[in-house]
Amino acid sequence: MTTAARLGRLENVGGRDVGPSRTRSPSGAAGPDAAQHWHDGLMAVTAVVREWDEPEGWGVLDAPETPGGCWAHWSSIAVDGFRSLAPDQDVQLEWEPAEQDGYSYRALRTWPVGVDPVDHDLSEQDGACSSTLTIRFDDDPS
Q1: Of 40, 52, 76, 111, which sits 20 to 30 A from 121 (CA to CA)?
Q2: What are the beta bridge partners of residue 59?
Q3: pLDDT tens across 70-89, in order?
């Protein structure tokens, strides 16, 4: 099945074509009772992972709202534990228009369909990585 077929047909809402995730819940219910994920004024759309480079920690997600693909980094994955995606995985996607590695869109936050997103508290991090190493030598017996 193609990505377009998995995502469903485009619907005309208010004179513009939008993907089904803008008007329907994952169960197919329409209208105000449809399950939607809103965060910081962004609504998540349903996407499919086209490819994921595990060693480099990035990949491309496909959604009708992001033609040509949406670049995603592991840091945008909103799950507990190890953050990774797999090809053909269905995900929720919050995105922004941005030029990133040849793609016109960049993921702000993404998580697997059917689970609640986890917000990672970055308030105590300053953007730099740090580590420590302690070496202890045994006392010289002589």
Answers
A1: 52
A2: 52, 72
A3: 999 999 999 999 999 999 99
The pTM assigned to this predicted structure is: 0.60
HSE (CB half, 13 Å, CA atoms) of 15?
A: 0
Q: Is the pLDDT of residue 25 over 50?
A: no
DSSP states of the chain as a string?
Answer: --HHHHH---EEETTEEE-GGGTB-TT--BSTTS---EETTEE-EEEEEEEEETTTTEEEEE-TTSTT-EEEEGGGB--SSS----TT-EEEEEEEEEEETTEEEEEEEEEETTS-------TT--S----------PPP--
